[in-house]
């Protein structure tokens, strides 16, 4: 280290991986110490010290990978250097070669960041509780001592993993000889630019329209974060201009995949989870499994569990986090797992997540169908959802306690603490406007509370969302209970003065970003982008491009 203070890697060693700013927090020196610590950890684990090391296309990645390999070799490890790779490609190599894996990516983080994902042989996950904490301590000791003692016998050699990866994913999800499909893929100048062409050239009835396939760690077109709607604009425009059947957007290391339908609309990750769960359950049942298990994190739509049970499967709830989901999949021999963050896990892919396998499942389902993708997934998105809303708070535990105390006073509401706080108020016999649930959980890395709300009706979702946000953000609170309306055939006018039928009001969306609209004084405000659209004579005037500032 460059100063006399003890090394402290706690800011970059997270619950499930390592993530920090390259060159300052995550330097070559730190990567070398982590490589040595990983080799030491493996020597005391089943399977020994063999490992495969790969990296993404970020500017800092080759240097960090070389340093990591150097540290591991100094401690006697045998290292296969796989070079440029997607994270699921590295997981595949770990599974096929029964070797531990180390991937240098930063997923969807900004260009200046980098990171490290580690796994045991067979792509088995490593978390803070199962090894990362001890590796951090060992790496800090190496940094403090200023040297890494050498153990003879360490060696590194090149390893090509792409061909085996392509064979594996296409073997798991063969594409039927159905109709010809036009597919747009936005690789965001990241690792899908390597893996998608290699897979696509083996698909005879797919017309691929590539966007930003040139590997460039500066991300010249947009960040590789497909959960940010602004990063989907290029894909949306291309789907429409090309008359494509669907579009895919991958994150930086291509283990996550977001789907757009033929209209350019986002298909919710929960709908994709339900679609793939149906297919994987059917396949497992055809092979003789009575009730195949599927794991879904508790932030996923309620419809996911309903779909799993209707297909004859067993639903297993999970906390958020890939290590937790993989562990539950192994425990229950689950055939599939899905997260609201567009991570999808497959038993036959070593319980690992793969954006490519998810994309192939969607392509296969569409090829087998005579319908458009929007029609195919319509039944898998029946409820109104808020999406994930972050609030910065001083005391997350106290904020959750305030919300819990409030929820416990609501008749018929139930609370559980599997992952933060989940409150459910969903009686099948109750009126539709009284059916809702929400999850409020802490971020692993920031002083944030993450809120997800789902309800039978859009108006209910908005009401519950706004109340919980008011509690979290210490603002005036309105009731979670439904409001009686004098005119049953009209939506509550509220402050906006909108006097339209209820079914129309529930379907109104912001013309700029398609976000839901809430009542404000003499207008409707988008809950996503904040733009305000006036109500004149009881009629909402929804015109794209308004520039009024959001209400504070």
TrEMBL record:
Q: Which residues form the Alpha-D-phosphohexomutase alpha/beta/alpha domain?
A: 13-130, 164-264, 271-379
Q: Where is the Alpha-D-phosphohexomutase C-terminal domain?
A: 388-469
Coiled-coil stretches noted in the UniProt entry, renumbered to this chain = none
Which Pfam families does the entry mention?
PGM_PMM_I, PGM_PMM_II, PGM_PMM_III, PGM_PMM_IV
Known InterPro entries for this protein?
A-D-PHexomutase_a/b/a-I, A-D-PHexomutase_a/b/a-I/II/III, A-D-PHexomutase_a/b/a-II, A-D-PHexomutase_a/b/a-III, A-D-PHexomutase_C, A-D-PHexomutase_C_sf, Alpha-D-phosphohexomutase_SF
Q: Which UniProt keywords apply?
A: Isomerase, Magnesium, Metal-binding, Phosphoprotein
Lineage: superkingdom? Bacteria
**Family in the record:** Belongs to the phosphohexose mutase family.
Name of the protein this chain belongs to? Phosphomannomutase/phosphoglucomutase
Q: Which organism is it from?
A: Brachybacterium epidermidis
